[in-house]
Amino acid sequence: MTGFALSPIAEQNGFRLEAFETIGSTNAVALERAQAGDPGKLWIVSKKQASGRGRRGRAWSSPEGNLAASLLLTGNLELKSAATLGFVAGLSLADALNAVCPSANFSVGIDGASNAGAGKSPLRVELKWPNDLLAGGAKLAGILLESTLMADGHLAVVIGIGVNVVAYPQDVPYPATSLARLGANCDAETVFLALSDAWEENYRIWANGRGLSDIRKRWLSQAAGIGSEVAVRIDGAVLRGIFETIDEDCQFVIRDNDGVRQKIAAGDVHFGTVASANAE
C-alpha cells in the first residue's frame, strides 16, 4: 500500500488517483488509460519510476523516494491552449513546494557557483522556461507534456511531473539537486498532496486557456534568469543574448547579441556559466 492521497478539494472536484509502489512510466500509463477511454481528471503517481522520460526523449531518473506524477486530462481541449498547461503545472508545483518545504540550505547558485554555508533561507523555487523548476539555480523538478487522440476524436493531454525528493542525477551537464540535499524535510506523499491541492487553484485560473494572461503574470513573478545572459539551443544552433520575458503565448523572448528581439517556441535554455559550458 502506498501513502499517496488526493487533497480534499481535488476529490470534491472529481479528480481520481491511481498510486503504484513502482512503475515503468507514469506518463505511459496515463496515455494507456486515455487510449482505453478513461474520462480524465486522473492522477497516476509513484515513488519509483523505472523508465521515465523527459523532454526530447531524454531519460528521467526517478529512484525510490522521488515523486513521479502524471495527470490525465480529456475533454474539449485545444492543442494550442493545452500546450500551456506546463506553465500551470510549474506554478502548481512551486506553490506546493513553498507550502510544505518552507526552508532549505542552498548550495548552488543560478550560474552553478557554490554558495555552501549560506545557511537556512526561504525555499526559493524558480521556474525555468519552458518546464523546469530550479532551487538555488539547480534543477529540482521537470515537467513533460504529451498528448494523444482518443477513440472519440477528443484530445487527451498528460502532464508528467518529476520531483527530486531524495536523490538527483549525477551524470547530467547542468547543476541538479533534491529536496533532501537542500535540507527540506518532505517526502513524496506530502509533496503530491500539496501538488494536487495547488493544481486546483491554478487550473481554475487557467480556465481552458482563457486565463493564460494571469498564469503568465504569475509565472513571470517566479521566473529564473530574467535580465541575465542566456544561451538557447535550437535544432543544433545556439542563440545567445539576454532573456527579456515570455510573450502572451508563453514563447521565450530573447534580445540577441545584435540587439534583435527573438521569440522562441521550443529550445533548451542555459544561463550564465552553464550556458558557456554546455550550449556550444
Describe the overall structure:
The protein is of the alpha+beta class and 280 residues long. The protein has two domains: 213 residues, Bira Bifunctional Protein, Domain 2 (BirA Bifunctional Protein, domain 2); 50 residues, SH3 type barrels, CATH 2.30.30. 25% of the residues lie in helices and 29% in strands. It has a seven-stranded mixed beta sheet with strand order 1-2-3-9-8-7-6, sandwiched between helices. The chain is globular, with a radius of gyration of 18 Å. The termini are far apart.
Task: Map the helices and strands.
Layout (H helix, E strand, L loop, with lengths): L7 H5 L3 E5 L5 H10 L6 E5 L20 E7 L5 H4 L2 H16 L2 E3 L14 E3 L2 E4 L3 E4 L2 E12 L5 E9 L24 H19 L5 H9 L8 E6 L2 E10 L5 E5 L4 E4 L3 E4 H7 L2
Parallel strand pairs: 1-2
Antiparallel strand pairs: 2-3, 3-9, 4-5, 6-7, 7-8, 8-9, 10-11, 10-14, 11-12, 12-13
Helix pairs in contact: 4-5, 4-6
Question: Could you provide a short overview of the structure?
Answer:
The protein has 280 residues and is an alpha+beta fold. It is built from seven helices and 14 strands. The chain folds into two domains: 213 residues, 2-Layer Sandwich (BirA Bifunctional Protein, domain 2), CATH 3.30.930.10; 50 residues, SH3 type barrels.
Question: What distinguishing features does this structure have?
Answer:
BirA Bifunctional Protein, domain 2, 25% helix, 2 domains, 7 helices, SH3 type barrels, alpha+beta, Transcriptional_repressor_C, 280 residues, disordered C terminus
Q: Show unreliable segments.
A: 106-120, 274-280
SS summary, helix count: 7
Series of secondary-structure elements, N-terminal to C-terminal: HEHEEHHEEEEEEHHEEEEEH
CATH topology name of the largest domain, in short, is BirA Bifunctional Protein, domain 2
Radius of gyration: 18 Å
**Overall number of strands:** 14
Average pLDDT confidence is 87
CATH superfamily of the largest domain: Bira Bifunctional Protein, Domain 2
The name of the CATH architecture of the largest domain is 2-Layer Sandwich
**Beta-strand content:** 25-35%
CATH class of the largest domain: Alpha Beta
End-to-end distance? 47 Å
Question: How is the largest sheet built, in terms of strand order?
Answer: 1-2-3-9-8-7-6
GO molecular function: biotin--[biotin carboxyl-carrier protein] ligase activity
Enzyme class: ligase
EC number: 6.3.4.15
Keywords: ATP-binding, Biotin, Ligase, Nucleotide-binding
